[in-house]
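note to self: dont lose this again. the chain is below, predicted strucutre after it. 219 aa total, dont forget to put it in the shared folder this time
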Amino acid sequence: MIIRNKCVVLLSGGLDSAVTLALAIDKGHDCYALSFDYGQRHRIELDYATRLCRKLDVKYHKIFNIDMRFGGDNSLTGNSDVPMANTKNHGIPLTYVPARNSVFLSIATAWAETIDASDIFLGANSADYNGYPDCRPEYFKAFEDVINLGTKAGITKDGFRIRTPLIKLNKTEIIRLGLMLGISHDLTFSCYNPIDSKKCGVCDACVLLSDGLKAIQST
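---
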């Protein structure tokens, strides 16, 4: 009998998380997908997450509701407009939502401990950790240490592993990997500022995807 390892996969509905989910399935995991309705202006991504879970061999898909609309100047749940790509930005981008990954990973850890899963997957990649403090490799290592110190599973069992299989890949490499796994970009929604449920085409997420597709088409 084949023993499949349970894992929790953070699934936004965007390309990176979709490829991560497909990769975890390809590696033989029983995947429990976790999405968040947190007050994001691009909530349509959850519709794509739901469709992806129906298409793929996902054990269970949970959408967790948590309101992170605290105001402030972030452009996904706060008061600022989503900037266009290549807008001059000093430091951390306006699309950073305060402590979002810490909140998401804490909830993912609680679910993983409940279902006796040891692996938590998410789609952070090289394009993310150039600007977002909670997407850096050292952040994930530190958070893994924290949850293994502060959970029953971390003390009495083998603990948890935070998996970031795309962490060294750029967008073009992620698109290629997705195609190998049967995930094309039209199955996903990567846009920070949808207009009438369609991608805006000018935000960072849209332009990164567009540039990645152009790079593939030119080779």
